[in-house]
Amino acid sequence: GASSDLGTGCIDMDEVTGITVDAKADIDLGSKASFQALTVLDASASVSGRSIVLANKSATGTDVSLTGGSGSDVFDVSAMDANADLTVSMGGGNDTIAVAKDNIQTDWRIDGGSGTNIIQTDKEITITSVFTNFQGLAFKGSSDVVQDMTNVPSISSVYINVDGDKAITISNLDDGDVVTLQGDKTTDSGAAVTLQGDGGVNTISLI
């Protein structure tokens, strides 16, 4: 069937505690931070993609489990912080997890699964133990970034799409890594981008 949009006004999102998805068409669960009571999203049987933006939890220590299917999922958990004990398994497909650097907790576990998967963040990633099976790192926001690639050892593609004349430094890039500048605000506003290799012989592609 056709894709579905279950955004604001369709359901009382802040009362929902669990969602199970078994779908063949993409499902958009809204573009605003919602589902404050949600603790379980299970889309493991679904072959479509899902898009969801999750609000923070009101109580500390709330277990939150998100499971994607074989489609391409976009899970935005950037509003979550220490109140959430977060476990994410994104499954198959080319997936994206959106996080806020200052909200990431050391006990979170976020697995991109199979496919080509991207971490989208506002600032640099410094906690190495949280993310597994991700190949891309996308910076989107209005902050300066100083990213040491040894903190994200599986990443080989970096995407930079920032507002204004920000300073972006990417260090310890591996041989063959690809850095892509995206958006007019990055390329036209004088963003200062510095790329540094890991000390060996590096061939880095800038697109």
Largest sheet: 10 strands, parallel
Provide a count of the helices. Answer: 1
The radius of gyration is 18 Å
Strand content: 35-45%
Helical content band: under 10%
Mean pLDDT: 87
The oligomeric state is single chain
Structural category is mainly beta
The end-to-end distance, rounded to whole angstroms, is 37 Å
Shape: globular
Order of helices and strands: EEEEEEEEEEEEEEEEEHEE
Commentary on this structure:
- The chain is an all-beta fold and 207 residues long.
- The chain is built from one helix and 19 strands.
- It has one helix at residues 184-188, and strands at 4-5, 18-20, 27-28, 40-42, 50-53, 62-67, 74-76, 84-89, 96-99, 109-111, 118-121, 131-132, 136-141, 145-148, 157-162, 167-173, 178-181, 192-197, 205-206.
- The strands form three sheets. Strands 1-3-5-7-9-11-13-15-17-19 form a ten-stranded parallel β-sheet. A six-stranded parallel β-sheet has the order 2-4-6-8-10-12, with no helix packed on it. The chain has a three-stranded parallel β-sheet with strand order 14-16-18, with no helix packed on it.
- It starts with a strand and ends with a strand.
